[in-house]
Each structure stands twice: as C-alpha cells, then as structure tokens.
Design brief:
The complex is a heterodimer of chains A (115) and B (111). Chain A is mostly beta strands. Chain A has a single domain, classed as Sandwich (Immunoglobulin-like). Chain A has strands at 5-7, 10-13, 19-24, 31-38, 42-50, 65-69, 75-79, 88-95, 105-106, 110-114. In chain A, the strands form 2 sheets. In chain A, strands 2, 4, 5, 8, 9 and 10 form a 6-stranded mixed beta sheet that branches. In chain A, strands 1-3-7-6 form a 4-stranded antiparallel beta sheet, with no helix packed on it. In chain A, strand 4 (31-38) and strand 5 (42-50) form a beta hairpin. Chain A is globular, with a radius of gyration of 13 Å. With 111 residues, chain B is mainly β. Chain B has one domain (3-110): Immunoglobulins (Immunoglobulin-like), CATH 2.60.40.10. The radius of gyration of chain B is 14 Å and the shape is globular. Classes of the chains: A mainly beta (115), B mainly beta (111). The interface between A and B is medium-sized, with 26 and 26 residues.
C-alpha cells in the first residue's frame, strides 16, 4: 500500500510568514511522529500522537510551533512567524501500535527554507 | 533521559574494506535499538533492529549492554552502502514511546 505522504515536498517562505506542513500516515497506523532534520543535528523530535490520547508536545522548540491530527489520520504541523533557524527538513513518521519493535515508516519530508 | 551518541559525523572507506559505525546509548534498562538508513534522494528507512538478530545487506549489529553500544558492522563495504546512517533507541513499554535518534553518520564508500 501507499507509504507516508508529506506535502509540500519543498517550501520557501519569507521570514515572519506562517507555514503549514501536511502528513498522511499509513492507513491504520495509530502513532504519528514529527521530527526535524538539520545538518549536523540529526533527527530532533517535535511531537507525537497516539490514537485519541493527548499528544506529547515535549519536543516543540517554541510556542510558534503547533500540530494537529484530525480524525486520527492526517496531521498538520504549523509554524507561525517563521524564522531563519526554522529552515530544515521536517519528517513525518507513522507506526502501528506502541510496541517497542514497531519500526517507524517515514515520509519523504518537507524541505523548508526561510529567507 | 535516554541519549544516543554517534561519535563520527563522517566515515570514509574504500570498497572492500571493513566498516564499523559506532553507536553508544545511555539508558539503564534494556532498550530496543534500531539502525535506520537514508540513501541519496530516498526516504529514511529501517535497516535492522537488534531484537531480530538479522543481517541485512551484509550489515550486522550486536547489542553490548556492558559497553552500552550497538555498533553497525559490515566486513566488506560496497559503493551502494554510501548513505546516512542513524542509530535509534526506544525504551520498552512503561517508558517513552518516542524513539531517540543519534546525529547520524555519513558513510562514503570510494571505488
């Protein structure tokens, strides 16, 4: 079946503008994660959704970042008043269940450039 | 909090040479460990997980609890192994379900 889908694949925005990044997880996957990938910084956890539970937002770097997951499926990551340091690749991943052995299935990411 | 350290940002070897990508973790219990790989222009994907004790594309990784390490090894590197490799740790149920990733090691295999 289809893998994790992210859109847009590339986004260039001006400093101070808001952006929305979208993630379509694999159908039936209850867990959804957002990570940020920066050169030299590896994968930085942002937020985690599991079923209908309250999301774990502990990784969000500032209150300019927020995310929603509607109907337990599609998720949107919103960055308000973008700054140049927000430039990175934003990765979404989903997995089935909570089991420790469940690997993450990643999307292709959205490359965000803030000018 | 758990932590994953990949000390090498870049590892450069020649084709046919052995390769070892280092991964150390900090966690007092029994973690579940993974290696993920990202080839050029492809998405990040699972390479192998320690619980499966499998060899994938000639790569193996052994969990050493005494040294808290999970190094990735291959006896004879191939050019197609050139990629970015990430080590990840996930603690068992009762802890965090959020995988922690290392900063990644870029492997370049020269012809």
């Amino acid at each position: 079946g289809a893998g994790v889908s992210q859109s847009p694949s590339n986004k260039v925005t001006e400093k101070g503008k808001d952006v929305e990044l979208r993630c379509d997880p694999i159908s039936g996957h209850t867990a959804l994660y957002w990570y940020r990938q920066s050169l030299g910084q590896g994968l930085e956890f942002l937020i985690y959704f599991q079923g209908n539970s309250a999301p774990d937002k502990s990784g969000l770097p500032s209150d300019r970042f927020s995310a929603e997951r509607t109907g337990g499926s599609v998720s949107t990551l919103t960055i308000q008043r973008t700054q140049q340091e927000d430039s990175a690749v934003y990765l979404c991943a989903s997995t089935s269940g909570r089991g420790g052995n469940s690997p993450l299935h990643f999307g292709n990411g959205t490359r965000l450039t803030v000018t | 909090a758990q932590r994953v350290t990949q000390p090498e940002k870049l590892l450069s070897v020649f084709k046919g040479a052995p390769v070892e990508l280092k991964c150390n973790y900090s966690y007092s219990g029994s973690p579940e460990l993974f290696w993920y790989v990202q080839y050029s222009r492809q998405r990040l994907q699972l390479l192998l997980r320690h619980i499966s004790r499998e060899s994938i594309k000639g790569f193996t990784a052994d969990l050493n609890k005494g040294e808290t390490s999970f190094h990735l090894k291959k006896p004879f590197a191939q050019e197609e192994d050139s990629a970015m490799y990430y080590c990840a740790l996930k603690v068992p149920p009762g802890g965090s379900y959020i995988p922690t990733f290392g900063r990644g090691t870029s492997l370049i295999v020269h012809p």
